[in-house]
Amino acid sequence: MSWSDKRRHWQQKLLQLDWYLWLGLVFLFAVLLGLIAAGRQLHSVLNDADKLPIEAVAIKGERLYTSDREIQQALQSLMQRSFFSADVTQVQQTLEALPWVYSASVRREWPAKLKVYLQEQQPIAHWNGDAWLNVQGEVFQAAAPPGLEKLPLLAGPDDMGSEVLTTYQLLESLLKINGFELASLSLSPRHAWHAMLDNGILLDLGREDNMARVQRFIDVYPILAKQSKAIATVDLRYDTGLAVGWDDAQQESR
């Protein structure tokens, strides 16, 4: 084969390769366009609440204070989204913003349901008059439902809720086994403790040695109870001994 024949042969090969290359590029471009179109269509379907609406929200967990209506109102705008576009994190945060909800977990369940597990606040005491303290010692705000009137009254700085609760539980246990009921306990901004018994006696405990000082009151109470006057306050801030304030008004009314 002459040189000119070889050159023509290779030119034909290159021309053929060029056609293959262009055909391949055209095919690849068509595939890409198809994928883009399909992706847009899928995105439209997944985000179209009319095509994939959320049909139900299943709520689990014991609820005493949070009604179905409150949950429905809280989630009303979020339920306008499709099953896939609904933000479960936002649903969770919205539910946890309800006053009596402590925590919420949310997950999707195919084909059109959200499953929600709620854990409500467990109030253990009134806090500062208009708030609540939960079993974790955390302060929360919520309207007062019926049935919680007999909870103890605790008070103090909001960041000391856990310490106030722990101290209350210790003192309440000590007093109860000795025949007393602790109705309220407060911690002042200067960290001084004041305890009110259900019989109306106020114990001034000071800043330290709460248990020892309450025990001192318990030991002395049988002697104090024999007096003709009613006890109003007992100041236990001394290293030894105590000071008693008598309820003269109550004595006069007898």
From TrEMBL:
Keyword set for this entry?
A: Cell cycle, Cell division, Cell inner membrane, Cell membrane, Membrane, Transmembrane, Transmembrane helix
Which is one Gene Ontology cellular component term of this protein? plasma membrane
**Where does this polypeptide localize?**
Cell inner membrane; Membrane
**GO biological processes:** cell septum assembly; FtsZ-dependent cytokinesis
The annotated topology with respect to the bilayer is: Single-pass type II membrane protein
UniProt keyword annotation of Transcription present: no
Q: What does this protein do?
A: Essential cell division protein. May link together the upstream cell division proteins, which are predominantly cytoplasmic, with the downstream cell division proteins, which are predominantly periplasmic. May control correct divisome assembly.
The subunit field of the Swiss-Prot or TrEMBL record says: Part of a complex composed of FtsB, FtsL and FtsQ.
Protein name according to UniProt: Cell division protein FtsQ
Species whose genome carries this gene: Shewanella salipaludis
The gene coding this protein: ftsQ
